[in-house]
Amino acid sequence: PTSITFTVERQIRKSVEVKGDFSNVRIAEGFMLDSTSFDYDSITVEGPESIVGTIDCAQVTLDRSNVDKTITETVSYVLLDKDGNQVYTSELTLSADAVEVTMKIVKYKVVPLEVEFIDGGGATRDANTRIDIEPKTIMLAGDASAIDSTTKLILGTINLSSFATDFSATYTIIPPNGTENMTGVTEATVRVSITGVATKSFSVNPENIVCINVPDGYTAENITQALNVTVRAPQEVLDQISEVNLRAVADLSNLGTNASGVFTPTVEIKIDGFPEAGCVGEYKIYITLKEKH
User: Fold this and answer.
1) Residues of 163-197 as b/e, b for ≥16 C-beta within 10 angstroms?
2) Which contacts qualify for 39-42: CB closer than 8 Å, 24 or more apart?
3) How confident is the model at residue 1, as a pLDDT?
4) SS3 call for 200
5) Cα–Cα nearest to 223, from 267, 266, 287
6) 84 to each of 43, 56, 93, 163, 179, how far by Cα in Å?
């Protein structure tokens, strides 16, 4: 030939971001997409400047239905320009032919927040309490087995004998292992009111302040000669109780066999003949423990 026509064009190299199109992925009911990741965050493309310069991203597309577990797959991608048009790769050199995609799928559930109660002080959880917890529920997400085994979240334990009429406290919400609190609320406020009972103060007679399980070889002498206590019960029961029904009993079994001196054991207040009644609060007495001679 008398002439040859050819084109000379500058070759360039460019790193383009890997993006995902998951619009056709359908997650099963009760599950949600937690995160997506790629083994390559970008693809390096080398070729003619007129082609490489138009590339905006490398797009991965997945099409799945009823997804209820984490997906990890190696899939091909297409190069797109800024208008979403495909850029063909016949004249290009690519750093990778495919991208590994991971879609982390987690299960979710709305669970109630609750507290446990220790009945006492003349009150029971079923008969005498009005409870308000705010928030009442949270949403947990995580491993399916952990979510399935969680039916409620216990914030703590409240002893009904520790207060007379009203109780309020803030508890930290701690998700079970393998789950995450999706609401972002980290604390719950619990308010408890005692209903259907009344309170009255009594003084325990000195002769009814007694010690049991005194260590062998020792005698216990009460220093405390007056003990004021608060009794709680239905009003009709409270009206029948008098100080002769009250006993303060200190159990000394945990003092050991080589104890002497002054001690302040906790006492249990017994209300003889009135099982519906109980004492509110914790009470201690002072005693002297001496060796027998």
Assistant:
1) bbeebeeebeeebbeebbbbeeeeebebebebeeb
2) 39/99, 39/100, 40/95, 40/96, 40/99, 40/100, 41/17, 42/15, 42/16, 42/17, 42/18
3) 58
4) strand
5) 287
6) 17, 8, 21, 67, 38
Distance from C-alpha of 276 to C-alpha of 121, rounded to nearest angstrom: 9
CA–chain centroid gap for 10, Å, is 61
Neighbour count for residue 128 (Cβ, 10 Å): 19
CA distance 246 to 92: 95
Neighbours of 291 (CB within 10 A): 11
Handedness of CA 17, 18, 24, 25 (dihedral sign): negative
Residues 106 and 154: their CA atoms lie apart, in Å, by: 22
Structure tokens at 235: 């009003």
Residue 160 token pair: 């009904």
The DSSP letter of residue 259 is -
DSSP string, 107-135: EEEEEEEEEEEE-BTTB-HHHHEEEEEES
Using CA atoms in the order 151, 156, 157, 160, what is the torsion angle rounded to 10 degrees?
Answer: -110
pLDDT at position 187, please?
A: 98
Kindly state the tokens that stand for 8: 């000379």
Indicate the SS3 state at residue 36. Answer: strand
Positions in the chain whose pLDDT score sits under 70:
1, 6-8, 257
Compute the C-alpha angle 18/20/23, nearest 5°: 165
